[in-house]
């Protein structure tokens, strides 16, 4: 059943152009009148006009012009404080303007023949204390234009950051129209109507309209929504910031390019961390078409959680929704590991009945190394020398995950709560990830303590020797040399 067309809101914003037009006409009329009066002084005076009348006319014209240029279109009244019972002073607060934007779009993407997802930020207090609403309008090109030619649908808002937002929270607006739109080859645009929904001021309801998607005629290929994806596996990286170690990024990239195979792609989001040294490491992979780097540094203007991490992963999900069978979400200090005699293709084939699965964490020490490596760690990779695993019991460990994107509506950092289908949280040790927390920004040798034991307690935390990744480091180096040559042989820490 088609959605009812939303009622037009004749707000003060819409009225501004008409007010300016009326004022211009008034000024022209007054100027013409005064010019006519001025001309009368050159004729015999029989009508009673005088120099005084002429001066008065121009004075009024100047007064009107001054008021138009110096007075704001709306003057907010002052709400006075009041003295309440018990001599308590009831203070008044006078809000003016906007504390945060109603919506900040990062990306908008088709999710099918009649569906779109708009990914962005919005004022968190507004979504906590009010009920913002979204309406979606599809305006086709080449038609008669106007509302009569548009298709409308209500926008369903998803808040995927689960309260982690700061000044801004992440909002994914899902627009599902009752019929297919834009598939006739005419092109069109998606216009979003966003309303504030009142909040503390229940009587206040303002609306903003913005174009979220612009499609040129003939640009939509409907077969892409059902065609086999280009990649088997795609990596969506979180915001990269800080003084990252090129050597740590080099190891991570070579390790996972080998693990994920040829039909894979990696997307990095630069929030200030992809400095020239890191870019030097990634460039050979970019040139081979294996890596994409996106500059998202402008997001720092908007105070969201952890360099807008939730915003970035949701944009990546919808941007590459139809390009990969599986999308992985984890960080560049985390290394995915499969059990022996297991490969990624066979594992994910067995997990295909699930929309998503989470991956267990193996926390590694970023300081402890083996005594036999003392004096030679400068030439070793981090996964070779950091070989002690934290085995403290009773600690809740974070998980990371992979998802089949065509069944996901929004996502998070550690898992998604907005999917169609089942989720699996127990993979029977078939897949896990080694986490080298605190090492990705270390621009020095991480080894601080050298240990000659298979088990040790350090700073109150028990560790055991775990050389799982150490044993594959040689194969990773050989793979890197075969794939991109020896261009990175002298990468700095």
From TrEMBL:
Its EC number is 2.4.1.-. Keywords: Glycosyltransferase, Membrane, Transferase, Transmembrane, Transmembrane helix. One of its GO terms (molecular function) is glycosyltransferase activity. It is found in: Membrane. It is an enzyme of class 2 (transferase). Pfam families: Glyco_transf_92. It comes from the Eukaryota. Coiled coil: none annotated. Its main location: membrane. The keyword Acetylation does not apply. One of its GO terms (cellular component) is membrane. It is a single-pass membrane protein. Belongs to the glycosyltransferase 92 family. This is Glycosyltransferase family 92 protein.
């Amino acid at each position: 059943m088609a959605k009812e067309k939303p009622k037009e809101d004749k707000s003060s914003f819409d009225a501004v152009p008409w007010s300016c037009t009326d004022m211009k006409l008034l000024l022209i009329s007054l100027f013409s009148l005064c010019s006519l009066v001025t001309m009368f002084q050159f004729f015999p005076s029989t009508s009673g006009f005088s120099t005084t009348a002429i001066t008065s006319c121009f004075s009024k014209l100047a007064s009107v012009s001054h008021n138009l240029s110096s007075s704001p279109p709306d003057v907010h009244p002052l709400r006075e404080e009041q003295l309440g019972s018990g001599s308590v002073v009831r203070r008044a607060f006078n809000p003016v303007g906007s504390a945060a934007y109603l919506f900040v779009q990062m990306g908008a993407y088709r999710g099918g023949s009649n569906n779109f997802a708009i990914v962005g930020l919005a004022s968190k207090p507004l979504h906590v204390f009010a009920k913002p609403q979204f309406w979606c309008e599809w305006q086709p090109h080449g038609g008669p234009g106007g509302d009569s030619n548009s298709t409308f649908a209500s926008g369903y808002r998803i808040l995927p950051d689960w309260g982690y937002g700061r000044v801004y929270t992440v909002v994914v607006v899902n627009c599902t129209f009752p019929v297919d739109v834009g598939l006739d080859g005419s092109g069109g645009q998606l216009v979003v109507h966003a309303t504030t929904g009142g909040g503390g001021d229940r009587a206040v309801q303002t609306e903003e309209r913005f174009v979220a998607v612009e499609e040129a005629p003939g640009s939509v290929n409907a077969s892409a929504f059902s065609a086999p994806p280009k990649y088997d596996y795609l990596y969506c990286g979180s915001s990269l910031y800080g003084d990252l170690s090129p050597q740590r990024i080099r190891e991570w990239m070579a390790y996972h390019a080998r693990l994920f195979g040829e039909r894979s792609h990696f997307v990095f989001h630069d929030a200030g961390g992809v400095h020239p040294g890191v870019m030097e490491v990634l460039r050979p992979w970019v040139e081979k078409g294996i890596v994409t780097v996106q500059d998202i540094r402008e997001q720092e203007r908007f105070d969201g959680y952890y360099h807008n991490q939730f915003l970035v992963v949701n944009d990546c999900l919808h941007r590459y929704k139809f390009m990969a069978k599986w999308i992985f979400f984890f960080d560049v200090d985390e290394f995915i590991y499969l059990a022996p005699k297991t490969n990624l293709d066979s594992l994910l084939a067995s997990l295909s009945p699930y929309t998503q699965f989470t991956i267990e964490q193996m926390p590694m020490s970023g300081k402890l190394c083996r005594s036999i490596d003392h004096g030679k760690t400068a030439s070793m990779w981090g996964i070779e020398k950091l070989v002690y695993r934290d085995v403290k019991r009773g600690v809740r460990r974070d998980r990371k995950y992979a998802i089949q994107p065509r069944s996901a509506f929004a996502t998070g950092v550690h898992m998604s709560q907005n999917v169609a289908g089942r989720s699996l949280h127990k993979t029977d040790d078939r897949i896990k990830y080694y986490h080298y927390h605190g090492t990705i920004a270390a621009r020095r040798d991480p080894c601080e303590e050298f240990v000659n034991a298979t088990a040790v307690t350090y700073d109150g935390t028990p560790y055991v020797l775990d050389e799982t990744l150490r044993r594959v480091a040689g194969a990773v180096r050989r793979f890197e040399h075969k794939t991109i040559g020896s261009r990175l042989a002298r990468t700095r820490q």
